[in-house]
Amino acid sequence: MAQGILDQYCVHGNMELEDIRELYFKDLWARSFFQNVIDLDIFYRFDMHDLIHNLVQSVAQGECFTVKSANTKDISENVRHLTFLEAGQNVSTTLQKLNKVRTITADRIDIDESFL
After folding, report:
1. Rg for the chain (alpha carbons), in Å?
2. How crowded is the C-beta side of 88, counted as CA atoms within 13 Å?
3. pLDDT tens across 50-87, in order?
4. CA of 87: how far to CAs of 66, 73, 111, in Å?
5. Percent of the chain at pLDDT above 90?
6. HSE of 97 in the Cβ direction (CA atoms, 13 Å)?
7. Backbone phi, then psi, for 81, in 5-degree steps?
8. What is the pLDDT of residue 15?
């Protein structure tokens, strides 16, 4: 939704984005992109099919990156979405050179106050 992929007006009339998202999800589910789907009312829990997961990783290679250790040096300057796997990493030096990053996902990371 945040990337502007869901076309609210051209295809679906005047539907809310959340309803359009639901239509897309159920369509992909029906086509077996997702498996073991559990509807938990406010969200779904599911597994992505292995082949789809591999395809997505290949396509998103330049935009998404998973940092497995604080010493990672091979992050592309074009990366937009970062995931930090190690808790307690100090990521300030990593983030300073990455000015195109839009999302950061981590359980717990350390950021120098000077970076903020």
Report:
1. 18
2. 0
3. 998 899 888 888 888 888 766 666 788 888 888 877 75
4. 13, 18, 12
5. 11
6. 9
7. -130, 120
8. 76
Give me the amino acid identity at 24: Y
Rounded (5°) CA angle 46-52-53:
70
92 compared with 79, residue with greater pLDDT: 79
Measure CA 21 to chain center. 15
Contact 78, 98 (CB under 8 A): no
- pLDDT of 24 higher than 70: yes
How many Å apart are CA 57 and CA 109, to the nearest integer?
Answer: 24
Token duo for residue 34: 């997702």
Question: What DSSP letter does each residue of the chain carry, written as one string?
Answer: -TTS-S-TTTTTTT--HHHHHHHHHHHHHHTTSEEEEEE-SS-EEEEE-HHHHHHHHHHTTTTEEEE-STT-----TT--EEEE-STTEE-HHHHHT-TT--EEEESSEE--TTT-
Task: List residues bridging with 44 in a β-sheet.
Answer: 39
Minimal CA–CA distance to 100: which of 112, 86, 82? 82
